[in-house]
Amino acid sequence: MSATSIARPVSGPRPSAGAIAVAGVFVIALMIYVRTLLPGSSFGDWAEQQLIQRDLGVPHPTGYPLYMLLGWVFSNIPIGSYAWRADFLSAVAAAGAAAIAALIALRLRVRPLIAAVGGLTLAVTGTLWLEATFSEMNTLHLLLVGLVIHRALVWRDERRDRDLQLGGLLAGLTFANHLLAVTVVPIVVLFVAFDARRRLVERPVVILQAGALFLAAIALYAVIPLRALAGPAAVYDQLLTWDGFSSLVSGAMFRTDMHFGTPESVAAAIASVPGVVDQIVTGADVPFLIAGLAGALILLVRDRWAGAMLAVVAAANVYVFANYLGDLDHYLLASWLILAVWLAVTAEWLVGAIQARLDERAAWIAVALVVLPIAIATANWSSHDQSSNTDGERFAATVFAQLPPNAVLLTYWDTLTNLSYEHCVDGMRPDVSLRAYDEAARVTCDPVDGDLTTVSRTRPVFALFPFADDYGGVEGDFDLVPGPTLSIPYGGRITDFSGTLYRLVPRQ
Q1: Residue 234 or residue 146, greater confidence
Q2: Confidence at 1, pLDDT banded by 50, 70, 90
Q3: Are residues 374 and 402 in the same domain?
Q4: Domain contains 29
Q5: Is 336 left (phi over 0), alpha (psi -120 to 50) or beta?
Q6: Residue 472 CB: number of other CB atoms within 10 A?
Q7: If we measure between CA atoms, which residue out of 463, 444, 461, 470 comes closest to residue 501?
Q8: pLDDT of 14 over the 70 cut
Q9: Mind giving me the DSSP string for 206-271?
Q10: What digits encode the pLDDT tens for the residues 161-217?
Q11: Domain boundary residue, one of 364, 384, 404
């Protein structure tokens, strides 16, 4: 047999440097997040997600159907506790968002190494790192927003109908996850429609195709009434009515906190800028902020369309943040992503300018930029490492230890979700029942039938709230006998408040 007849192994195409950079960002970010992930139960909204995903439950407004479905999928991964699996979904989505930031930078003609630096810097900034280690839909929202922006850039470069169609699908999925999509998707759609106006006139069928895919993704909201049909009726029947469903999906209960469309709202957005700057400096550092803002100007000069689109998205993001409560840091995640992209643009411009003077001898400068994400990660590690955080378990054990057998505890959202996770999922104190003023709360596994006065005839009843006014619903029927004062959560992820556990004794 001749040497030439020996079969040689066939190798496929090698991955490009850009693909390696994007994959590297995802892997490194995910490793950091998994290493620092919260291992057990949390409080409030974060504990709610840990609790309901196993049973494909419906979360608080606005329902988040895409996150519901993905949460259920992740809850079936045979690794760790149900709480850890819910947190792991956040970590995967956050790592994907960091990778998408690098992918966007590549589309803006940034070299792979610098694009990776931008993505990794985003990964270790304070706001995204915090969201990556707790369960909620915010990191998935950022991932989808990044995908929508990236698809717009792909269309601009390659002019394929399929990119407009895929963009419609991604836009719909973004809305099916979080209605905060309204602050990004319409802006991107307007920029793409302007850029694609001739193509859309030539082939209007593309508009119909993209619109159909958008509606197909939005149709995921049908998961909510379908889940409600499975019951239990006492908890889910309200979602089978149009009023109940529309109230949930539209977030009607939060509208009084929204202040949009007035001159005062613009003034509020401008007034919030110093606070936003402080948040960025605290979560990253001053070079990150300066380089990001410089990148915004560089991109506007170099690529007016892409630069204007990102600038408008960032401005809208700050506007909504300032005029809805003004203290929800995760509402600025889109701005963090855009700043990371602008950072990469500035770094590319700087390295290119130096290389133009020193020739290829300056190539080492691009490698030196890796110091930036390393420095930010080092500064943020101790404050964002949740791997030893057992506050949720310790809090539940403390509360349950104070309750006698067969007790009923009336409590509020932040503690109800935590205690329900430990009670319903981990099986702590199966004799106890938990209750909110809202008898149809979807985070209890054993609703208590009847009013509390009737219940108190056969079971000991207790109440735990952060403020004296919270007991107004029971003071008319019960004497409040004070018990121990406990460290409790209120609106956050830690037990930084105090509240007294009361025994409710029915008045004769």
Answers
A1: 146
A2: very low
A3: no
A4: yes
A5: alpha
A6: 11
A7: 463
A8: no
A9: HHHHHHHHHHHHHGGGGHHHHHHHTS-HHHHGGGGSHHHHHHHHHTGGGGGGB--SSHHHHHHHHH
A10: 999 999 999 999 999 999 999 999 999 999 999 999 998 999 999 999 999 999 999
A11: 384
